[in-house]
Amino acid sequence: MLEQIRQKLSELNCQAFVSTNRISRRYLTKFTGSAGLVWIDQINQILITDFRYTEQATEQAVGWQVLEDNNFLDRVAALIKEHNITRLAFESEFITVAEYQTWQSKLGVDLVSTENFILDFRMVKTPEEIQFISQAAKIADQAFAKLLPLIKPGVQEIEIALELEYQMKKLGAAGLAFDSIVAGGPRGALPHAVPGNRPFQVGDFVVMDFGCNYQGYCSDMTRTVVIGEPTDKHLEIYNLVLKAQLAGLAAVQPGRTGQEVDQVARDIIAEAGYGDNFGHSLGHGVGLEIHEEPRLSKTGNIVLQPGMVVTVEPGVYLSGWGGVRIEDLVVVTETGCQILSQTSKELHIIE
Description:
Helix content is about 35%, strand content about 25%. The protein has about 350 residues and is of the alpha+beta class. It has 2 domains: about 1-120, Creatinase/prolidase N-terminal domain (Creatine Amidinohydrolase, Chain A, domain 1, 3-Layer(aba) Sandwich); about 125-350, Creatinase/methionine aminopeptidase superfamily (Creatine Amidinohydrolase), CATH 3.90.230. Helix 7 (about 125-145) packs across helix 8 and helix 9 runs antiparallel to helix 10 (about 260-270). The N and C termini lie far apart (about 55 Å).
């Protein structure tokens, strides 16, 4: 990894790279503290942090020189002078205009803006990363299995959301990967509904989108269940989304772009007359963050490669009635994809 970064620096005609981004810092060094700056040049890899984290950083950032300093920018200025740096690369997407102006005034070098400098590396996961994501997915599966018997008429969305969090943490998760979505009945038409106090009722679809964090890595899964005997409309919408989701999974293959995969599932929903009711992308990358590249979307131009981890999550949302979303987390393989979410997608009927 470091050699690849140094090669990128040479291509940019830069002598060093710095990052203050928490995710980039963790990815590169494995340091989990909240404060730090990464410096990489052609010889050195340095992690600067403050007194609170020096011991932790020394333990976690194996192979990195750890420097303690309460003023990161002053230390960067000193490193620039020490190593005769004239061009310094940075991640433009992670600093503010005010920070950039401060850097300009204090560092006295050419600041070279980059985009996706570390993100490009993060898209293809290592075997260790895939192991952590797989465990996060397994925890989510197990928590959902414990949750199902609790879903019944009269139970509130917020109660189920809280139970999901409790079960995932009890099973070993460090926390939620994102705020859980639990939406019953008409509220299921809101793709990012916030769980509320509405009690479930007979005839409700209940959409549940949730995931957890394990060793810093995220999982993401959505399942939709129905309370009471499903009507023809319930079955029509559910089976349509399931058909699109299975086709999307089959389309996830190395060499295809995110746009091509998205189109496969989107066409199925559109041909059934519900194209306007599927307004979000088919999926997104997952890793240290819940939303990463690559995107399976109308504009997703990144070519899928083995080792990428993405979601496949089509949905249909009918205002005033409800919605269905079915989502799996998958790893792109040499021949297709491996599904990490193991919970059944057969429509679960709450009697």
